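> tool_call: predict_assembly(chains=two)
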Amino acid sequence: MHDELISQLESHMAARILKQPGRRIAADEPIISSGLIGSFDLIDVALYVEEAFGVRIADTELNSATFDTLGQLADLIQSRQSEC
Amino acid sequence: MLTLGERLWQHVEELPNRVAIQLQHAGRPDRAISYDELWQGAVRYTRMYEREALKPGEVAILILQHGEELLFAFWGAIVAGVVPSIMPFLTEKLSPGQYRNDLKALISVTRPAAVVTYPEFEPQVREALGESQVVRALISTGSKVAETERSPVASISPGRSPGEIVLLQHSSGTTGLQKGVALSHEAILNQLQAYGRALDLRADDVIVSWLPLYHDMGLIAGFLLPILEGIPLILGSPFDWVRAPWRLLQAVSHYQGTLSWLPNFAYNFMAQKVRDRYMEGVDLASWRAVINCSEPVRWESHAAFFERFKAHGLRWGSLQTSYAMAENVFGVTQSGLEAEPALEDLDRIGFMQERAARPAVAGKPAIRVMSSGKPLPNTQVRILDAEGTPVPDTTIGEIAVQSDCMLTGYYNRPDADTEAFRGGWYLTGDYGYLSKGELFVAGRKKDMIIVGGKNIYPQDLEALSYEVAGIHAGRSVAFGVFNAEIGTEDVCLVAETDSEDELQRRRLAELIRRHVTQNSAIALRNVRVVGPKWILKTSSGKTARAANREKFLNEFADFMAE
């Protein structure tokens, strides 16, 4: 489940945000602190996570302290899904 | 003629309790700062500058984020006669090493006497300073000074004169940080007067801004104009805006905002990213002008923004334009607020390929261009041909500017001054044409890339690519390509390698992407690694960026569409 979530996040980010379909993003690769996901893309990440997984990430949480890897983002999504 | 400090003091004396700034931070209540408080906060810094024996005319670099310390340190310098320059703060993605290099580049030319920063950031600054003796004082925001009584500017800072340099503005990157625009009190006050007239500025105006103060649009229109003209300012942060652009709209609605400035991409960004749930109860009817400025203005961006927010009271006539630059303090032109900016339909091929502004012909491709308005009452605009001779209306040439609010000069850069001026006219490096007294901007002569209103020098990005093993100096080229979806330029970089191996080329592209992103103000996406001799050079061996851009578009059109 967790791995599936990560691969879903990976393919969305590669294709829609990086515009490099097929690019691999490792589960533990920094994406925010590395600039891979730029500040203008953060809002797209939040919009996508809400649409695809029904989980809200507040704008004040859009920084690497909340999540910086796909693994951490998947954890966040799962923990919020289980809260509902 | 007054100085900026005297002008601020007038407001403090007249209406000390009036709110000058509502300072916004996401997740916190707004903080109202009265003129009196702004003065007290500023004078606290004036005392710190005095304690460090800074002399009037010496430069202080402010390395501070959005927040009251930045406001106080800035005004404290102005009151002291110390010349402030705001440097963008380290971002999450920028490598600290590169940030220190940028700071060194700034210091090497500007030679500031002081740097002001947070106690926790001092180690970074100290490391950048190294053995250099240029900066005498590292001033901490945490420094304590004795409380002082409210005393007038004349007793704190006697003998300042309007002709003196009052502040410096830099753009980003090594190249930008080595070219500080020096402005005098007089130039700034002349600009505010002329620009205020063009806006028909009123006592009941309310300015709402999220723009950074290290940029001319944020510093002048979104900071000095309201504070010095006695107009309330609602000041948010660019960091918060990019994560939650609806906060700007909510602030306009809540405070009955009347004036805002946005770079073109922001119209697209907000039209695309704002969810309905954040717009409940938001009414934008008070907005009398939302001014598109600091990158090429697009009619399509206004149309998208209007479609998205018209149900919330946004009026089409409130969408306005301006052409501005730090070298003229800020505005050069402003569209007339009584009507929407003029549009002209031109022959597309002529406009794109021959730099000619011919009216569109039925049956042929057309392009709709939007006016940036008329020159401000104190500013003259001329269009020059390659020889520097003025050309008739509707002929495209280089835009030249003359006014009573020009820069004093590029700080410590007489070489750059010589290059920028011809016969008393400032050469902007932008192409444009005049039609019925209105200026239409039509591309760029200089190589600068403008991303989201930010000026990026391609040579800085190219230099970074040479730091990637496998890429040799002189063998990459960077340029901007307009992207209609996002309303600004995409940065593209082509680098040559001797390797024929496709996998190796992709790996190099990825390394370049990462290295440039972590060491510059942009997130680089479009990198193409090619074989030897791809890059076109001029006869003198320089990289011809415009020609390479054309070649790239012809060869890799599909790459851009990916």
